[in-house]
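From the methods appendix. Each design record in this collection lists the discretized structure first, followed by the designed amino acid sequence. Records were kept in a plain field format so they could be parsed without special tools. The example shown here is representative of the layout used throughout.

RECORD:
C-ALPHA CELLS (85 positions):
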C-alpha cells in the first residue's frame, strides 16, 4: 500500500480513542489527563499539532491530553469500539 493511500486522520482518531483505555492521573479542575504514549510517533506529533495532547517528546512514558483531547478521546472510543444496540 502506498503512503498516499493511508488516511492519517483515521489513524489519529484510533490512536486518540485507544488513549482512553490508558487514562490515569486525571485532573478534574484542569480537564487534563495522562495516557500511555506507546503509539506511533508521527501520530503523536499530529495530535500535538492539533492541540489534543501536550508535546510528546521526553522521557516520560505517558503524555498529557488537553481537555479537548480528553473529551474527544472518550467520544472516539465509544464511537469506534462500542457495540451498537
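DESIGN:
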Amino acid at each position: 500500500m502506498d503512503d498516499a493511500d493511508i488516511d492519517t486522520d483515521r489513524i489519529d482518531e484510533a490512536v486518540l480513542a485507544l488513549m482512553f483505555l490508558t487514562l490515569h492521573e486525571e485532573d478534574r479542575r484542569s480537564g487534563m489527563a495522562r495516557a500511555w504514549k506507546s503509539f506511533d510517533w508521527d501520530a503523536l506529533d499530529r495530535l500535538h499539532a492539533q492541540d489534543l495532547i501536550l508535546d510528546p517528546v521526553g522521557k516520560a512514558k505517558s503524555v498529557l491530553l488537553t481537555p479537548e483531547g480528553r473529551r474527544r478521546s472518550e467520544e472516539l472510543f465509544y464511537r469506534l469500539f462500542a457495540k451498537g444496540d
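APPENDIX NOTE: The chain is about 40% helix and 15% strand.
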